[in-house]
Every structure is written in C-alpha cells, then in structure tokens.
Amino acid sequence: MPGRLLRGLWQRWRRYKYRFVPWIALNLNRNPRTLRYVPEESKDKVISDEDVLGTLLKVFQALFINDFNKQSDILTMLPETVKSKYHDLLSVQHPRVKPLEYRHEQQNTFKPEEILYKTLGFSVARATSSLISAGKGVFVTRGLVPKGAVVSMYPGTVYQKYEPIFFQSVGNPFIFRCLDGVLIDGNDKGISKVVYRSCNGRDRLGPFKMSDSTWLTSEICNPLAVGQYVNNCSNDRAANVCYQEFDVPAVFPIELKQYLPNIAYSCDKQSPLRCVILVALRDIKQGEELFSNYYTIVS
Ligand SMILES: C[S@@+](CC[C@H](N)C(=O)[O-])C[C@H]1O[C@@H](n2cnc3c(N)ncnc32)[C@H](O)[C@@H]1O
C-alpha cells in the first residue's frame, strides 16, 4: 500500500513541470487554482514559433533603425544586400533623410518604450506590484495588448540541465525552469549579474554583440526584457500571460542579436539559444498588471 502511494506520488512529481522552484515549495498548497494544465509538452505553445520570430524581428529591426547612427561599425561589416535593406527601411521611416547623410546627422532617436509602442501598439514597464508585498511587477503602461501577442521576454543566463548553477540559485527567486529542464537565471543582481556580464563579453564577435546586457541596468535597450518581474497569479487575480519557450533559429540576423536578452552559460555551439517569451492570454488594457502562472502540469 505505501509502495503504491509512493509510486503514484513519484509519477505525479515527474509529470509536474515546475517553473520557479522555491516559490512552488512554499505556495503550492495555498494556491491550488493557480496550476496550469497542458495536455502534452508539444501543446504548451500558445502561438507558433514563426509568429514569435516575426514579432521579435519586427521589434528588433525598429530598435536597430532607431539606433542607426550608433550602428556604423556593424553596418560596415554587413553584406551590401542587408545594408540596402536597412537603408530602404530607414527611408520609409525617415523619408527626408538621405541614408548616407544619416550617420552624420543628429538623429532624433526615440526611447525604446516608444519604439515598442509604435511597433506593437503597446508598451510595458516595471512598477510596484498591485499585490501587497509582492515587490515589483510588470504593467501595460500604454496601448492595448491583443490576445496572442508577445508581451515580454524573460531575460537571463541559460543553463543546460547538467551545468553548475548551485551558487547562483541559492535564495534566488528568478530561476526559471523550462519544460525540458533548461534553467534561465533572470536575476539582475549579485553573482547572477556577474555571470551574465562575463558570458556577454566572452561571446562578442568584433563589433557584433551576441546578446543584450542592458536589462541589468535601468537603461533597458530591449523594452520587452522585463518578463522576470511578472508576478504569479492568485485565486482572485487570474493569469493574463503565459510562458512559452523559443529557440533562436540559426537564420536569426547577426546584427539583431544585440537585442536578445539571453546568453548561454557555456559556449557550446551545438544547441540553439533558448529564450522564453510571455504571450497574452487575453486582451490586456493599459494600466493592468501582468500575471503569469508559475506552475505548469503536463499530463
Ligand atoms: C520572479 S520574482 C517576481 C518579481 C518580484 N515581484 C520582485 O519584485 O522581485 C518571484 C517572486 O515575486 C514574489 N511574488 C510573485 N508572485 C506573487 C504573488 N502572487 N504574491 C506575492 N508575492 C509574489 C515572490 O516573492 C516570488 O518569490
């Protein structure tokens, strides 16, 4: 009898794909309604990888064009076809400025949040959570997030299952666990910050940055990279976003990698870079706080 019970518990634990380990240990019994069930791993995705890629490229391209006068080192290294694509995009967005003059002109750049709003029709930012003693949260500061939109990204260092994370994980509520056991450390302080910065420096290829580290500062270049601050839903605050994993394809433009807020802990070139994005589960209005579901059960 105890054997059957233990086996049952073990099977349930194996099916249980936890997201935030310390949080689950403390809160599972208190908040049973915050569990999210998905039928099988392959059905965990709410939107297609193509849609995720399309949105990221759209936002990153807009950020790149907005930063155009700071991108000259990168532009000189790009093939002519790619350069002319950006010049075309630039002339559509700034019709009165000739591309060659552009680098020398004082460009009127917009803030990244403004670019996000112009590109996707909404912006998001961190602020004190509407939940008592939940610290910071993430809010829709402008516009409307339509159902199915990529609303945020979960930044951080990506660890494969077998890589050492013990010291970074002690007392760290920002460790996110993917369905396949890959971990993402989204803490912007302490040892986690040092590790991310060091990996970011390691992977730089001349003028090409392979990831963005500005999410560790108050001047964020990629305005989507605030997903680690999204709080967990509760019995009276239903989840309005969910996590979705996304592996960056090999065809991802090298000049746009500077906006990816994730980096691999070890430089194993075999596996694609894992990112986690947050997708809106319904239309989310200006002023609303984002709530995700920290627990996912795959049955
Ligand atoms: C990934 S962090 C989220 C960001 C956090 N609010 C902050 O300001 O650092 C997870 C932590 O946020 C807090 N948190 C998340 N959801 C919560 C909720 N529904 N109620 C209270 N605290 C919450 C818990 O302290 C949890 O360990």
Automatic annotation (TrEMBL):
PROSITE patterns: SET
Gene3D superfamilies from the UniProt entry: SET domain
Domain of life: Eukaryota
Signal sequence interval, chain numbering: none
Transmembrane residue ranges: none
Residues in SET domain copies: 122-295
Protein name: SET domain-containing protein 9 isoform X1
Native organism: Callorhinus ursinus (Northern fur seal)
Gene name for this UniProt entry: SETD9
